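Contributing new complexes? Match this layout with acetyl coenzyme *A.
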Amino acid sequence: MDDLKFLFEPEQVAVIGASASRGKIGYSIVENLLENGYKKPIYPINPKAEKILGLTCHKSIASVGGPVDLAVISVPAKLTPQVVRECGEAKVKGVVIITAGFKEIGGEGLKLERELQKIGHQYKMRLVGPNCIGLMDTHTKINASFANGFPEKGNISFISQSGAMVIAILDWSLHAGLGFSRFISLGNKADLSEIEFIKSCAVDPNTKVILVYAEDVTDGEEFIRVCSEASKVKPIVILKSGTSVAGAQAASSHTGALAGSNQAYDTAFRQSGVLRADNMSDLFNMARAFSTQPLPGGNRVAIITNSGGPAIIATDTIEKSGLRMARFGKSTLDQLREKLPAEANIYNPIDVLGDARVDRFQFALKKAFEEDNVDSIIVIHSPIEESEADNTARAILELKDSYPHKPIFAVYMGGRIMATGKEIMAEGGIPTFTFPESAVTALEGMVRYAGFKKDNTKETALPLPQVDHDVVKATFYDVLKDRRVLLLAHESSKVLEAYGIPVNRTYLTTSVEEACSISQQIGFPVVLKVSSPRIAHKSDVGGVELGLHNRREVESAYHRIMERVGRYLPDAPIYGIEVQKLVDDGIEVIIGMSRDVQFGPMIAFGLGGIYVNLLKDVSFRLASALNNRQSIEEMISETKAYTLLKGYRGQKPADIETVIDAIYRTARLAQDFEEITELDINPLRVYSKNAISVDVKMTINLIE
Ligand code: ACO
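Output block (do not edit by hand):
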């Protein structure tokens, strides 16, 4: 059920701030409602006017005297709260606030916007905007906006955070002949955001594909929840702008520096089945594809062309993408060989040659449609003469109807000669492009979405791990009490151990005797390191002694460290000496965590060691998604580290099970403790049996 039906299918609409003066926004709204076929009551509200565009005016919403589903408001900002309150009193279900001058100007505007939110909340009335163009639905024929024009009827919904984008795309669509079901301008999102509208468009029977232009998302967790459900029903394509790297620059950990907010958006979109468009043309090319074509059954593409060059470009682009060139079966090859000229290429791409007339295209296309190893087709036509291009377009359309289950795209290269052919194709519902790369990008989007729908079986969540919250809480308490945010090694090792993440336990000792007896206890050889919140690079000040084999060696190493550190950094507070077991070499991987403001903890996995940021062999997932084996395995398998772990060049395979478990537990830790801002387990050394975290960097924050 559409929770926002009162916006897209209102029984009555009031326009508050309606004006009889042509050129004013209040005039355009009434005119748009009247002119685009809305047949239900329209109530212009204006305290001074008697009639507007032939409609009787009311002094206020209260004087309408009957129910009103939707009110569109275009009075100056300072009058808006009062008008919205009157709408609440009159039990209006939703208001579209066109007026600008709120949050976007800060100060007083922000205060006014908060007031609007409060009033909406008080009357349980939904708000669109403020600072928006309004909304349109071509099927219910409502144009509750001041935009100039109304889109052609179609099955694409466009939700935009930018009002200018709505106006520009609307105007372009009228020229490009692209049909829309809905246009929604979000404005400042004081109440309703992309989340509610995605939900609404997902259940709208007239919408086949949902496009979003977003600068941010309102609530990361809810966004993922809603999109994950909606994308099971129909594709969502988002162009996200304003991806700042500021967050990444501010990070101090490896993971934080690699992640950044753009990565978080990428990860969140992917996780919830949302396709991300890189630019406006990809956004609308994908829209065109989804709105007209069936979903491909797989990624195997056949190309039919009358020219070599463009086909090579298309093949190269396909090879670089997630698509594959189809390999034809024997029977198809035999038939192509028999009917096409000897000079034609019968292998994919099928080159029907420059002198090809419509019959050759038609024949090759039929064979591609009938070939089981082909999931989709791209026809590339380079100009020969206009009539041939037009005839081929008609022939393609005719054939397409007999094979409704395979998507087909056309690349009509050129301008003047190809223009009519392109129009014929567009009218017949075949996405047509001028260059092959755009066709491949649009098709790849479809294949990715089809894959998401197919894989979308629910994974069974792993059982909750046995963990000790209290130890973690107590450790964080002590760190913060000591006015620190960075944990010392013995503290982070305690936290990891409490969560069952394999770690080389670090013990803080404060005397030579204690260091010797701990060493004896954990077993030689051991490592000694100075422990001080002021010493980040311990080796640089002689604060590390490796490979100590007996009590005597530990004793003298202890004294040496104390002496050297005292000499180099006489003022640094020394908490003691850390004792660890010396661990063997192994495959070094990193498990990291950074926290995104929108989407929460994000986990990274990849090749570890000191070259992490140089190699950038890392895959990311939001911690919330890492609750099942398949997701974690998939995350690991995206990295080169996975090749090493499986046993590269005759090496024994490493203990991937322990890595999976460690990632799972790290994700759990990150979700359970919001105060952890960054975490690098680097390296986690992985052996053929078992793994161990050797170095851990964890920073925390005070949670109010
Ligand atoms: N109830 C009903 N009508 C009222 C009330 C009331 N309480 N008070 C005033 N009005 C009437 C006015 O009398 C006037 O009608 P009139 O033309 O008959 O005199 C009408 O409401 C509008 O009021 P004005 O004071 O004339 O305001 P104006 O039309 O100049 O501006 C507007 C109002 C358009 C809302 C302006 O404040 C504004 O915000 N403009 C920017 C809108 C915008 O850009 N939105 C963002 C879109 S996103 C983008 O473009 C990229």
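Reviewers usually confirm one structural detail per submission. For this one: Residues 16-17, 19-21, 24-26, 45-49, 74-77, 79, 83, 98-101, 131-133, 163-164 surround acetyl coenzyme *A (CB under 6 Å).
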